[in-house]
Amino acid sequence: MSLSLEPVDLSEVLSKCHAMMEAQAQQRGILMTFPPFEQPSFVWADQTRLKQIVINLLSNAIKYNQTNGQVTVDFTVMSSDRVRISVKDTGAGLAPEKIAQLFQPFNRLGQETSSVTGTGIGLVVTKQLVELMDGAMGVQSTVGEGSVFWFELRSTPAPELNGKVETLEHTSPKLAIEPLDTPQKILLYIEDNPANMKLVERLIDRRTDIKLLKAMDGSLGIALAKVSLPDVILMDINLPGISGIDALKMLQEDITTAHIPVIAISANAMLRDVEVGQQLGFFRYLTKPIVVEELMTTLDLALRLKNA
After folding, report:
1. Following DSSP, what letter does each residue of the chain receive, concatenated?
2. Quick check: 280 and 274 in contact, CB under 8 A?
3. How many CB atoms lie within 10 A of CB 110?
4. Residues 6+ apart with CB under 8 A from 208
5. Which superfamily does 6-154 belong to?
6. What is the CATH number of domain 165-306?
7. Do the Cβ atoms of 137 and 150 come closer than 8 Å?
8. Tell me, what's the pLDDT at 172?
C-alpha cells in the first residue's frame, strides 16, 4: 500500500468526517460530538487514509451503539510529539475475551447472524493503516457501558514554504515584461490537502499574470480541465478516488487536454518516485515541502514552452 505522508490538519479531517457520517448517525438517533480546535493541529499522516481510519471508527461506533446513544470524539496531546484521537460509544461494550479477538481478520465476534452488516476486516485494516503512519491503536471497553477506540499519531508543525514569498517578484521576471492587457494564464491545482492548497494560493496571489483554479480530487480536476483548458496543471499524486497518475493518463488520452503540461507535486520524494513520474509523462516532478523558487521557475518554464 502506497502512502503519502505529510502534515495534515486534524481539525479539517475531523470536520469532513463529521459531515460525512452525520446522516448515518441521525438515522439511529445517535448524537455525535467533536472536540473544538482553537487552532489547527497537524499530524504526520496520509490525508486520504486518515479519513478512512476516522470514518471506520465512527461507522462502528454508530452501528454497534444503542438507539439514541452517543458518540464522542476526543483529542488529547499525549506528549510533545504525540497526539491521541479517541472515539467513544455508548454501546453494549466488550468482554475481555472478545477484545482479544478484535483485530483478527473476518472475526465479527458473533455478529455474523445479526442485522448489522460487516465483513470483519474494517478494524484490521484500520490498525494496519495507523501503524503504517508510525502510529498505535488500542481499545478500552466495559460491558454495559460502551467502548473507546483510540489511535495515536505523530504531531508535526504546519506545512511551510521553503523560500521567501516576499521576494517572489524578483524570482518571476514575467511580471515586469508582460503587457498590462495580456490575458491571464490559467493554473489548475488538483490537491486534497487544504493546507497545501492555501500555500499555493499565497504564491499565486502575488502573480497577477496567473489565475488559479482549484479541485479537491482527481475526478473533479479532470472535469475542470476539460471545461477550462488551463495553460498548466499542478497535481498531487496521492488523491482520493482517482490517483494523480490515473488522472494524468486520462488527460493524456483526451485530445482536448493531452497538450497541457502537468506538473506532479508529491510528498513521495524518493528518487525512484521522481524517475517513475517523469517516465509516465509529467512535465516535472516536484516534491513537498514546496520550494518557492523551484515551483515558480517550473511554472514559468511550462508556460513558456506551451505558448512557444
Report:
1. -----EEEEHHHHHHHHHHHHHHHHHHTT-EEE----SS--EEEE-HHHHHHHHHHHHHHHHHTSPTT-EEEEEEEEEETTEEEEEEEE-S----HHHHTTTTSTT--TT-TTSSS---S-HHHHHHHHHHHTT-EEEEEEETTTEEEEEEEEEB-PPP--BS-GGGHHHH-THHHHS-TTSPPEEEEEE-S-HHHHHHHHHHHTT-TTEEEEEESSHHHHHHHHHHH--SEEEEESS-SSS-HHHHHHHHHHSTTTTTS-EEEEES---HHHHHHHHHHT-SEEEESSPBHHHHHHHHHHHHHHHT-
2. no
3. 9
4. 175, 184
5. Histidine kinase-like ATPase, C-terminal domain (3.30.565.10)
6. 3.40.50.2300
7. yes
8. 46
Quick one: 51 exposed, middle or buried, by C-beta within 10 A (0-12, 13-18, 19+)?
Answer: buried
Domain range list for the chain:
6-154, 165-306
Model pLDDT for residues 193-219, shown as the tens digit of each residue = 999 999 999 999 988 899 999 999 999
- Cell numbers at 53, concatenated: 481510519
Given a cut of 70, whether residue 178 has pLDDT beyond it is no
pLDDT in tens, 89-146: 999 888 888 787 777 764 545 454 445 454 446 788 899 999 999 999 999 999 989 9
Q: What is the pLDDT of residues 286-300, one digit of tens each?
A: 988 888 999 999 999
Q: Inform me whether the pLDDT recorded for 169 exceeds 80.
A: no
- Global model pTM greater than 0.70: yes
| Cell numbers representing residue 212 in the block | 488559479
Kindly give, in sequence order, each residue whose CB lies less than 8 Å from that of residue 164, ignoring residues fewer than 6 positions away.
292
pLDDT band at residue 173 using 50, 70 and 90 as cut-offs: very low
